[in-house]
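DM between two lab members

TW: hey, do you still have the NDP-hexose 2,3-dehydratase entry open?
JB: yeah, one sec
JB: this one, 460 aa:
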Amino acid sequence: MATEILLEAREDGELPGRFARSAAATSGVSLRTADVPEWFAQRRRAHEFRVRRIPFAQLDRWDFDQETGNLRHRTGRFFTIEGLAVSAADDPTPIWQQPIIVQPEIGILGILAKEFNGILHFLMQAKMEPGNTNLLQLSPTVQATHSNYTGVHDGAPVRYLDYFTQLDRHRVLADVLQSEHGSWFFQKSNRNMIVETDDDVPLDDDFRWLTLGQIGELFRRDNVVNMDARTVLACAPTVHDEAGALDSDTGLLSWLTTERSRQRIRAALVPLDGLDGWTRSDTELDHHREHYFRVVAVAVEAGNREVTAWTQPLIEPDGPGVHAFLCRSFGGVPHLLVNARAEGGLLDAVELGPTVQCQPAYHVDPLTGQRSPFLDAVLRAEPERILYAARHCEEGGRFLRAESRYMVVEADEHEAPTEPPAGYRWVTPGQLASLARYSRYVNVQARTLLAVINTGAVRF
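TW: and the structure you got?
JB:
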């Protein structure tokens, strides 16, 4: 007799509702939202945190290669700083060279979920990153490079890692490879995971269970929720009550495929030495016009990390960024204006980004050399049209004080026409959330804003 084969449902129809109930819950089992600042203060008092700039010569086990000038760790692991040469295939004018982080290994960004009193809670960590403006921020349960969790750094084991490596014991709610910053990383991806457990989880002092609603409240505060938590939460299987959209899902995918075919980018790694316009001193690698960013070195002390002291290079931007969605309602359904954005470090060259993604100090996109057509609509928006605004740090493990203002701004037909210019498209939050469940469709800046929306921090 043949063994009966049991089939799984292709989708868990209850899961989006469970996330929605968590987003609506603003009180949790282990910590009130109002008490998070005091918890952070306790963790700062419990551990030594210190970051200071140092000359390149004081980097421990990091060297500039004699042949290429590439900055690398002597073990050959972690990451390297190399050169990148970029040009647009259809127009040879926008050509530039820059340093870029090369880290081909795939890390794990994982948030552990557990149901308490019928509400999903998420195990969040108070984690220090050397590049964060205020050092300590709310992070995923696990935030580890492959070198970290395989012990290359000779540090302590990564807490709670088994929940994300022994998946047969737990339930996977989200698991997707997502890109990192395409302007500063070369083809870098991390595994973004949400895993649910029924286990009794021992609670370390640096960790607390929070609902999505609590995290949404924290999103309204500056520099509290770190980038790695934001990108994971953007991949959550959420539901958006939408009657329709300006574009069908197939039409949206077809448009993005057309943009990827049209905006062809040539990007190749080159030696760090000899980059056009870049000069290395004892303390930094900088562009002679001082635009965009520089490479610096730091010494770090952190009492609650797997390794408590180390040195490393970091990328330091030359000023804050602004990343914003313009939004309008069509047929009673909120829509966001996305940009099919090309970046030299992206594996697929083009991903969906916010309406505006730039450093306002320079105003122009480094790829096209053009000013964003929507920058003024964002910077000059009246307070009543700003649905969301908060400052957030970018990846604090690789970037020094890379802080950006994230915004969602209501627009009108004059500021953001129904038929936008080439490279822009209106999408619903639900369409964007659906794409974020798959690899390399939504860039990291847009995912931050999507996480803000998914957790209820924006009310349309």
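TW: got it. The longest strand covers residues 91-102. Residues 251-265+319-454 form a domain with the Nucleoside Triphosphate Pyrophosphohydrolase fold (CATH 3.90.79.40).
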